[in-house]
């Protein structure tokens, strides 16, 4: 009886509490809305907007409507920090309908919008499902389909028409501004891929490696700089150790070699982001199909890494362009600012900030070259399967493949041009204190008060591996490739030593691995 009494004592207050809660909800439903307040999109709305934004092939299944026969073009957009769906539906005969909807009335897989001709009230309503059958493909930011119905707003009893929408894949830069065959052959060569990946990995991983692993890299000749005086790119001394000089020098050397094979012009200014469709339909349409090769690809989604998803959306946003990229663009051409920096400090700032973000802003999702399937977590850095050496693997988020992407040369050319701004700034502020000289065939600067390093690091002097950067004819022997593969396995072996941590720390693109890191 004591147990029954105790349970009754718990149940009765619980029931009363539930009754009061229900009554409060009913009372609240009777109230009129409060004054308006700023409402920003929730994460789910932002993600839905990212999936909808782009160009779609739209077609009615059952029958046509005047102006909407056959395949039509549907352009959808959601503004930055916006909560409404806007766009146009263009028929094959040139008829245009305006699209108007809102994300708040939509759900993750169900969307609604209305269609109206210019100057007329909305005549039709579309309700559609964003299909989940794509699985992994849905996460790549480009693949999706809509299936739904089109109904008459003024004739609700009329049977609706079914329609299908297929999102058009974002064209890669190589489809718009392809590299010339002789340049591509050099860039996709195993030696160049491995060299570029290992050069960055050695510098980026050095600070986190155990001493035994450092000794292993020293034994292979792949320590970043002179033995015992290595210059890591991510440690506490990164701005003072001269690693920024190595970064600027290696990429200038790389640019000079590539430009002997074909013209590779620098960006004169950073490409402007895609305009909101309400501000400029033609600009939106041109960048949606990547007309000039420099449009920002859509963000993809990692199902296990929400922090990365938000970071990537932020980097690709218009707000990031105006708040960060344009600030860097102005700052790194400001004589007053540049005249205060040593060359290594300047290079380190460029590399760890703007450079890494440039790679990820203009990166499209990694795709398996054998079948085109998105690889959301990026290629394993020690996966040297033959398919990854194909020319289609030009993913900007991984040094193994980034240099194969045409956009790489445009923004690295822009970075290299800032060296001349830096030199001119010092000539103006400190005449004669920075002296030009040639180093390994590269126009460079003599060591001194503002240049910390005598001989920048291009790679090892043993095993011949470092010569891959200079050898556009690809005459090195196979043992060099195996040496670089072994060095990469050493550099990344720390990741393999703790497999139990992999679920808690999903693999991220190389240029996103230091996201949020502080030292």
UniProtKB/TrEMBL annotation:
SUPFAM superfamilies: Di-copper centre-containing domain
InterPro entries (UniProt xref): Di-copper_centre_dom_sf
Name used for this protein in its record: PvdJ/PvdD/PvdP-like protein
Organism for this UniProt entry: Metapseudomonas lalkuanensis
Source species taxonomy: Bacteria, Pseudomonadati, Pseudomonadota, Gammaproteobacteria, Pseudomonadales
